[in-house]
Amino acid sequence: EGSRSSSMAGKRPAAKVTYYRLEEVAKHNSKKDAWLVIHGRVYNITGFLGEHPGGEKVLMEQVGRDATQGFEAAGHSADAREMLAQFCLGELQPEQLCAFSGGKNAVCLQFSF
Ligand code: HEM
């Protein structure tokens, strides 16, 4: 499970953000339990697999991993980007961000399990 910690955004009260590691995301790689990462956020898309206008197949190729590059390569609309929020579980550990998401560690692009 993800680790909980507080983060202070400006002077607002601490908001709870759940951080996940890629190793945890990787466990959720089946049709019945499908997670992926896009731009540093972790999404549970299990219920969306059959709803995706681009089809289930492309999503199943990305589950359990960082799908940022594929998501951007498909050129998603603003509507598609807004849909993401409803599936969000939390954030990827910042040091595991892929280069495509602004991470310094380009090796994440080749991350595989
Ligand atoms: C939860 C994440 C995702 C959401 C909410 C989503 C949503 C959508 C939506 C609404 C469309 C219709 C076109 C548009 O509005 O842009 C679409 C099309 C498409 N998506 Fe996704 N998508 C997601 C993830 C992905 C990923 C990870 C890939 C590939 C790696 C992908 C590949 C495609 C492709 C190829 C199309 C185009 C289908 C066509 O033009 O016939 N999507 N997606």
Automatic annotation (TrEMBL):
Coiled coil (UniProt feature): none
Species annotation: Sarcophilus harrisii
Family: Belongs to the cytochrome b5 family.
Gene3D superfamilies named among the record's database cross-references: Cytochrome b5-like heme/steroid binding domain
MF GO annotations: heme binding; metal ion binding
SUPFAM superfamilies, A to Z: Cytochrome b5-like heme/steroid binding domain
Keywords: Electron transport, Heme, Iron, Membrane, Metal-binding, Transmembrane, Transport
Matches recorded under PANTHER family: CYTOCHROME B5, CYTOCHROME B5 TYPE B
Primary localisation category: membrane
Name of this protein: Cytochrome b5 heme-binding domain-containing protein
InterPro entries referenced in this protein's UniProt entry, alphabetically: Cyt_B5-like_heme/steroid-bd, Cyt_B5-like_heme/steroid_sf, Cyt_B5_heme-BS, Cytochrome_b5
GO cellular component, one term: mitochondrial outer membrane
Domain Cytochrome b5 heme-binding: 17-93
Keyword set includes Iron: yes
Compartments reported by the entry: Membrane
